[in-house]
UniProtKB/TrEMBL annotation:
One of its GO terms (cellular component) is transcription factor TFIID complex. SMART domains: TAFII55_N (SM01370). It comes from Giardia intestinalis (strain ATCC 50581 / GS clone H7). This is TAFII55 protein conserved region domain-containing protein. It comes from the Eukaryota.
Length: 188
């Protein structure tokens, strides 16, 4: 076995993506158990072509795609026996495959939103409108920072209490004895 063959089978060299297919291609994949394809990336790694490895009725052999970063990392799990699951990858990219003559509206919307976002940030006016900060794939970032966008007077750096200077160690027996004393005081 050559080193290149070993790299093909190496677990660390595998990449996983979320893939969105056009309806006709997705239907063909559901109907044919032998459906096979491969992705050919361009030099930037942000777009490329999906090549179907077999000829299917009413389908082209080549479809273009674009890669988008997801706002969050998604974990992928596999199972050998259905009982125990093992984490296999962190997925942070989504591939959107489209038909060459039907460019999805979300690509146009995404490009417009990126230009508006760039212009507003260059003008010193960050935009927090959801339509401008949209993700083309529908995945949204967590809302942990939403209060800071809605109420800008909230400090972004929370104030912490100063650390305690004296350490106090309380054992389980002391806690148990204290609870008994409190219960006895209530009865009297």
């Amino acid at each position: 076995m050559t080193s290149i063959d070993m790299l093909k089978d190496d677990f660390l060299c595998q990449e996983q993506y979320i893939v969105e297919l056009p309806d006709v291609v997705a239907e063909a994949a559901r109907r044919n158990p032998d459906f096979a394809f491969e992705f050919v990336f361009d030099i930037t790694g942000q777009s490329g072509e999906m090549h179907l490895l077999r000829q299917y009725d009413n389908l082209l052999r080549v479809y273009p795609f674009r890669v988008f970063k997801t706002p969050l990392t998604t974990e992928s799990y596999v199972s050998a026996d259905g009982d125990y699951y093992y984490k296999s990858a962190d997925i942070s990219d989504m591939i959107i495959v489209y038909e060459p003559d039907k460019i999805p509206k979300l690509f146009v919307d995404y490009e417009i939103s990126q230009k508006v976002k760039l212009i507003c940030s260059a003008a010193g006016n960050p935009v927090f409108d959801p339509s401008v900060n949209m993700s083309p794939h529908g995945l949204t970032p967590p809302t942990a920072w939403a209060p800071f966008h809605l109420w800008p007077n909230i400090p972004t750096r929370p104030s912490y209490f100063p650390p305690a200077t004296d350490e106090v160690v309380v054992t389980f027996d002391e806690i148990h004895t204290d609870k008994k004393n409190q219960a006895g005081a209530k009865i009297d």
